[in-house]
Amino acid sequence: MKKILYINGQEFNFDTKYISQIGAWKSLGYKAEYFKLFRTVESLREVIREIRKFDLIYLRHGYGLDRVWFLIYPFLKEKNLILEFPSPISSLYSDIKTNNELGYIKKKVIYLLYKFYIKMILPKVDLIIEMAEEKDEEVLKYKGKIYLWQNGLNSIELYKINENYLHYQSQTIKKFVEKKEFHLVFIANKLYLHHGLDRLIHGLINFYQNKNDSNYLIKLHIVCSKTVLIEKFKKVILKNNLDKEIIFSDHMPIEKLQEVYKTANFCIGCLGLHRVDMQEATPLKTREATLMGLPSCISYHDYDLSKSDFIINLPKDDSPIDINLLIKFYSKLITKYGEDLNQIIHEFAVHNLTWQKKVELLEDECKKRELL
User: Fold this and answer.
1) According to the lineage, what is the superkingdom (predicted)?
2) From CA 107, how far away is CA 101, in angstroms rounded?
3) Per CATH, domain 3-152+354-368 is 3.40.50.2000
């Protein structure tokens, strides 16, 4: 039996993702474990003991790994190694080229350290996993090692989706048809400019300023951690008297998020990835919305979803979102699928977007490269 060890630094937000992958590997007949690496002597000793027991080591790239690389590599060099870049290096640091503010100078220093470690690490690994197209020249020197993978859904059991949930969602469709209520939801752990939320807010401002004969009531629920950017958007919303139409909630666990999804018609995906020079991506939040039975709008190419008829692809620019376009798109979906819409989208996610499906694809790739 082949044995696979996942090693991640102190990025706690991604534990569920890797635990779900571990479960998928186990269902395929492998022994698989997950190790959180801390910068302590005891943690280093423990990870070295664990490495000795496994055949294939899966590493998540990050500054935490970089800082201990030289200490653990002597114990890794006889193993098959996979290195995951959660986001393309080219997109993470695209903004440092033109900005000389103090915060960006610090970011430039981190970038130079990243580049130093990348030069040391990449020659040693057997497979490089990217979740979106990489444009960094240093990484592309090893193009033959790159495998373009897509994000998957965490264990479906975590979401506790049942018939009552899907029945409740059918009521939101009735409200749209009968009462002309259109409820949008935007969810992120932490808000960044590349989420493009400003495009949606300005689209809503335009909609209400030029409402004319439209009698739709549009509501937007934004769920994310409090940041300076959020406070900036709140001022814009208040200035335009939309504080009743646009509400904010702090980041919440999946159990509470489900209550938000239940009352929504439509999910807002990333609308500003072009700002970090990304044209393709596979964000987890859009996949979660699909599992929850919601159609979405995005402005990038999604390898799994862009061709689906419940996804609307918007322009890759900074223009305000045309809310009437979203209403027309959703109306067509209701005409086509009726109250079965949410169930159909949910089943698509179950059959195509789980980590079980994604890990099976990675298994095939590893076998082709004789890593398993």
Assistant:
1) Bacteria
2) 10
3) yes
Q: Which residues contact 167 (CB under 8 A, 6 or more apart)?
A: none
pTM of the full structure: 0.86
Kindly report, residue by residue over 308-348, the tens digit of the pLDDT: 999 999 999 999 999 999 999 999 999 999 999 999 999 99
- Report the pLDDT value the prediction gives residue 360, as an integer from 0 to 100: 97
- CATH tag, 157-352: 3.40.50.2000
Choose among 248, 210, 214, 212: nearest CA to 229: 248
| pLDDT number for residue 321 | 98
DSSP string, 324-342: HHHHHHHHHHHHHHGGGHH
Find, among 184, 271, 176, 174, the residue nearest to 223 by Cα. 184
In degrees and rounded to multiples of 5, residue 66 shows phi and psi of: -55, -45
For the chain, the first-to-last Cα distance in angstroms comes to: 10
Measured N-to-C along each axis, helices 341-352 and 284-291 cross at an angle, to the nearest 10 degrees, of 130
pLDDT digits 0-9 by tens, 90-101: 666 665 555 555
Let me know: does 292 contact 261? Beta carbons within 8 Å: yes
Of the given ranges (85-89, 129-133, 189-193, 314-318), which has the lowest mean pLDDT? 85-89
Q: Do domains 3-152+354-368 and 157-352 have the same CATH topology?
A: yes
Domain boundaries, the chain: 3-152+354-368, 157-352
